[in-house]
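Dear support,

I submitted the protein below through the web form. The confirmation email said the job was done, but the results page showed an empty box. After a refresh the structure appeared. I'm attaching both so you can tell me whether what I see now is the final result or a partial one.
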Amino acid sequence: MQTYQQAPVHTGNDALLRAYTPYGYHVVRGRPLLAFAGEAVAQAPHCYLLGNGKRGYHTVQMRFLSPDAFSPFGRGGLNAYAYCTGDPINHVDRDGHSPTRAVGQATGLVWGTVGMLSSLNKASKAIVKRSIAKAEGRPIPKEFDDASRTNNAMIFIGGLAGTVIKAPGAALALSAPFESIGAELVAGAGIGAASFAGVGKIRQLLTDMRSTYLQARLNRLPFGELAIESIKEATGWNRIRGQESAILEPLPEKVLLVRLPAGRG
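What the results page shows now:
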């Protein structure tokens, strides 16, 4: 069986044709520089060192010779030794992991952080708004409805889970050689654009949160309590206990008294 997608391209009538199985096995004739999937042939029979020698792949065993650092929870998949996640017809592995592993891990991490910050910011703004209204003697704004608070908690927990799961994979991905990551960024331009948009959203959320906490500071609301109560609201703790979000009391206003020395006379 010959896979034209991954076999070397030859032109001319005198070209040597090579037939490969889906996993790259073929009868060796000569020592070509490039073979299956355009990869260099290793010194060991039927072996390729993918990712600039990072991981050895054996075409007879149809598996890698070492486990994938991104398995089992990252893009390496549950099987740490599988080649192309068991689908070599529709995929090709250039670096021993995945052509978009660094970008993909970073994208999940970025958007998980977006979900977390978005929910936390919504909770903080509601607490500050209600606390200031009470301190100024105005009617306290109504709490968000139950469905909205539940959805906000689900977004926060989902974002937190996504961040925790993706963070180790992203850290490992960024430890790869820069030239490999550069190739992945080109291959995954669409995912890279999504990551870029996510970073922009994070910057926007941080600016909004800074404004909220500045408003809290101007109204002498305690930062520590605001942070704790915001987390309790964002995680759904208050919702589970049937409580509304907290209303904070302003800190006592400090008055500086200065004693002037008595004049001589």
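Response: this is the final, complete result; the empty box was a page-load delay. The first strand starts at residue 47 and ends at 49.
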